Amino acid sequence: MLLYIHVPFCRGKCRYCSFVSRPFDMGQVEAYVASLLLEIRHWGRKLARPKLETIYFGGGTPSLLPPWALARIMPELRRQFDLDAVVEWTFEANPDSAVDGPYLKSLLKYGVNRLSLGVQSLSDTDLRFLGRPHDAGQALTAYGLARRVGFKNISLDFIWGLPGQREAVWLEQLKAAVKLRPEHLSCYGLTVEAGTPLAEDVAAGGVTLPGESEQGRMYVRGAEFLEEAGYLQYEISNFARMGFLSRHNSGYWEGKDYLGLGPAAVSTLEGVRHENPSDLREWGALVRAGKCGQGGVALTDAEKVREMVMLSLRTAKGLRLAAYRQATGRDFIKDNEGLVTALRQNELIRISAGHLRLTKNGFLVSNVILERLAY
């Protein structure tokens, strides 16, 4: 199965971020580590030291965890879980907290073999707008340092669709990124999430994002450019050189079992889903009471089919039509005959080799398509 560990600390909240995170505080970090160790032991016992395929430290900012915290967490993972078959161990980092060579080397020694750097932009102006705690120079320094200490699998995150950004500007960003030769790139469109400072600025008219047509050109032309540069698009927002797609995230899209540890982390094990409390104290109390995983909800057959369709259509492989028939006893194309015809005529989907796939233009409007499909 897959293991995800949520680290809920950041130096500060970025203006666009709606993830569960809080300002870094050493006292809270100590409480977090103590609770996480208990949660690791709980699941190790409950699942009888299960075998893991991938591990992913996400956040928040995992690279803010002090060395003493890693020295307690990493060995406990090895004691409580079977890591012999782990093929990918990802650790997210922000550039400002990833410029410590000994720290990065320690990650490699613990078994981490993939680093995901939250660069977001190589423009200092954009980084200030986003509220990021680093500048472009730190991003380049962190990347170079990670290479020198021995990381052979590095992913870089970027955001497109920023105020004032146009297709040509976005392509220049991608050209600079490609020159670095990372193994993986994640490129996300800027999303205005309710309750964030960005949402307030947009509502007040202080920030204007690029229009839909401009954003469409950025997305499609950017994806084409990356594929021309040797980065295959395997999911709506993700591109990788051959052999370097994210095994962990692909596991989610393929419907594999996953265990989530830490506040707000979600798990799905044998068709049962549960979510940890997002509040650090509430999560800690739950863990100390030995109630991890209680109150889970079994997914219905309809929910499983819906997730299979939605997740598979996010990927370049698309939906395997035989899998849909096996799960439902129905024909997906007949269930959606009129819509499928319209989508094919508008070149938003392709059907071949037993799969229905979204095209790049289809990815761009995937939310609308998914809302209209019958499962």
How does this model look, in words?
This protein is of the alpha/beta class. The protein is 44% helix and 19% strand. It is built from 16 helices and 17 strands. The strands form 4 sheets. The protein has a 9-stranded mixed β-sheet with strand order 9-10-8-7-6-5-4-1-11, sandwiched between helices. α2 packs parallel to α3. The longest helix has 21 residues. The relative contact order is 0.11.
Q: Secondary-structure blueprint of this entry?
A:
Layout: E1 2-7, E2 9-10, E3 22-23, H1 26-46, E4 54-59, H2 67-80, E5 88-93, H3 101-110, E6 114-120, H4 124-130, H5 136-149, E7 154-160, H6 167-179, E8 184-189, H7 197-203, H8 212-228, E9 232-235, E10 238-240, H9 247-253, E11 258-261, E12 266-269, E13 272-275, H10 280-288, E14 297-298, H11 301-312, E15 319-320, H12 321-328, H13 332-335, H14 337-345, E16 349-352, E17 355-358, H15 360-364, H16 366-372
Parallel strand pairs: 1-4, 1-11, 2-3, 4-5, 5-6, 6-7, 7-8
Antiparallel strand pairs: 8-10, 9-10, 12-13, 13-14, 15-17, 16-17
